[in-house]
Each structure stands twice: as C-alpha cells, then as structure tokens.
Amino acid sequence: MRFPPGFGWGAATSAYQIEGAAKEDGRGESIWDTFSHTPGRTRNGDTGDVAADHYHRYAQDLDLMRDLGLRSYRFSISWPRVQADGSGRPNQRGLDFYRRLVDGLHERAITPMATLFHWDLPQALQDAGGWENRDTAERFGDYAEAVFHALGDRVPVWLTVNEPKTVVQNGYLWGHHAPGRQDPAAAYLVAHHLQLAHGLAVRALRAAHVEGRIGPALNLHPCYPADDTAEAATATRLYDGYENRLYLDSIFKGAYPEDVLADLGAESRMVRGVRDGNLKIISSPVDLLAVQYYTPIYVTAQGDTVRRWPTSEAEWQQIYPEGMYDILTRVTRDYGPVPITITENGLPCPDTLAADGTVDDSARIDFLRDHFAAAHRAIQDGVPLESYHVWSLPDNFEWAEGYEQRWGLVYVEYPTQRRVLKRSAHWYRDVIRRNGL
Ligand code: IFM
To answer: Per its record, what are the GO molecular function terms (predicted)?
Structure first.
C-alpha cells in the first residue's frame, strides 16, 4: 500500500501541552494556566508548567523527529509568549523561540506547519470577555499579523484556529476545559467569533504578502443514525450541523447552516452577533483544509448518542477507521476540491516503560495501521490528501486529563524528562521509510 510520492508523514503537538517554561522569557498567563491551577479542574491537579519541557529540550526533540524520518511537524505558537496580554508590541524572546524551532526543522529537512491558536488564550483577553467579545477576534488578527511578519518567510503552512468546536463544547457547554463555562448561549457566540478570528487571520496572511498557505484545523466527526428510523435520520442531520457544517459551511460556503440557525433561534446571542460582512471574512478563500479525526458519532431518534465501537482510554473516542474514509470523502465531495492534510489522529494507550527500556504499545500500531489504510483508500478514491500527522509526538498534558493519558509515539518519563521511542514510533519510522504499509 504505497502513498503518493512525497507524502507528508508527520506528527503533531501544541504549545501548552508540551512546552512548559510557563513563566520564562516574558510569556504571559493563558486561560489554561488559570484553569489548571484552579483546584479540581484537572486530574491530579496537573498543570502545563513543565509539561514535556520542550521549550528547553526542543533541540533533542528535533533530533528525535529527524531520526524518525518525519517529513512534516505540526506545532502551535503560544499567543501569550508572543503577546503576554494578547495585544501590543510582540515579545521578541517569544518569537525567537519559534524561529529557532523552525530553523531547526529546516536544518533537518522537516517541513514546519504552525497553528496560530491551540486554546491558550491570553488571560488578559479572557478578563476582557474572551471569545464572547468580538474584539478578541480582532486582536487575533493583529497577533497573526505579528507572527507572519516574524516567521512568514520560513513557515510554508499555517493553520488558524485549532478545533473551534472543542472550545465551544468543552470550554463553554460542558465546562471541563478552560474557561470552564456552562453557557449554551455564550457557546455559539464564541463559535462565531472563533470563525471570525479564523477569517481575519487568513486575510492577515494575504496582506502580509508572504508565500505560505493557510487553512482551518477542524475536528470533524462523521455522524450516523443509530437505527433505520426517519426520526434518527433527522436527528443525525441536525447533529451533523452542530458538529461539522457549522464550521465547514461558514468557511467554504459563506453561510451558516440554516437548520442550525433555526435551531438556535433568531434571538440567540449567536444569530444576533453575526454582523454584515462577517461571513465574507469567514469565507475568505483558504489554501487547504486540516482534518482531525478521532471518532464517529451515532445519533438516536431522540438526538442522544450511543456507542457502537470499542473505545480507548478516552471515553469519548470510538475506534472506527472507516470513519476516516467517510469524513475525507465527504469533505471532498461537499466542499472540494481543496487539498487536505490530516493534522491529528491517534489514541491514548496504557503505556508503561518496561524494565528492559521498551514501551510496547501494539494497540497504537493496530489503530494507526487501520487508519492509514482508510486514508489510503480515500486517496485512491480521489481525495487530495497530502499529509498525515499522528497525534502526538511525545506524551503530553492532555488538558483536563493531565498526564494520565499517554497519546505519544514517544514515551516521556516525566520525573527525568527522558524520551523513549515506543514500539509504534519504530513501526512508524518504517512506514515513512517505505512510504506506506
Ligand atoms: O490533545 C488533544 C489536542 O490538543 C486536540 N485534539 C484532540 C487531542 C486528544 O484529545
């Protein structure tokens, strides 16, 4: 099973999950510093203060990527490292870190792919209303401009907002992510402002006259009816609207889905918050679509969800590789043709470091093999898939789950920060070398 020549085999991370160095070189506070330091918010009270200490160990991590043969590395830039309070003159020391990282990638012939926002909103902006405040989207456009100015000559692919849906759902509906709110009315206004922020960043890149390509990073969940009834089909359609079309339609079609708008109601904060011209900004043409696939969703006639497939240590995940094929072919059919990159796919395993220094994560190998095969089939059926990033490179801070869930190809022994390649990493190196399975 060979992939197209030059296929971008990669791995992904995000700033708050791996960097640590929370108070160094002028970095400001983010909402995840606040949230993780609030008692009861994360498992075992874990925080990202040290994480995988990547800020200090990035050179070693770069060597590791080279040894694995990675062709692409997706990371995120910490907004509060670049602007401590989310606005104003950029912090040169923060930008310098990313410049060193990006240069190190080029030296090792690895293509950098940078995400501008992976959830670590500067706390000062949260204090001013966070994503409920339209001004945060404007600030994001300015921040993006500063980053493009500093790194635009050396980063060929940019992603705007990582998984806006997760911010909406986990941060504002269920409250188990920062900022920890349970406020449906606010949640969808936040969705709109995140989409606006995306569009403003796209425009900032065009205005900066740099070469790079840019697109959104969306976690898409294929939705299936749980049974054959017409009611389940109807409920599934609306569920899909909230999970997928809310983000895809606005970016690729310049309109929010009618069924979702009707469900929210004309008087909702979101619908009232959409101003003239906003959708034109949101639908500014993009160069690629980044898809993050983890799980399908099965919807009952009542609009509830049920489990169909085995889960992983993440209880929200069902292991269903066909879903990868379905979502890739669906976005190509409904929104294409647009080049696609998979920017996340993976699972947490109960990894342990054996006495002989190995980590046997054969479940991860099985998972990746099946998902790679589904992606390959999608390519054969016409999906313009150009790269695939496994989540994640090293074990890291899994948000509310702290360090208990291990998602990496590389085991991190946290007390010593020693890195150990798991069996899956050795296997992945082989896949990359052979350009296939
Ligand atoms: O760790 C997260 C990542 O930050 C965003 N996508 C899902 C991953 C696993 O939960």
So the answer is: beta-glucosidase activity
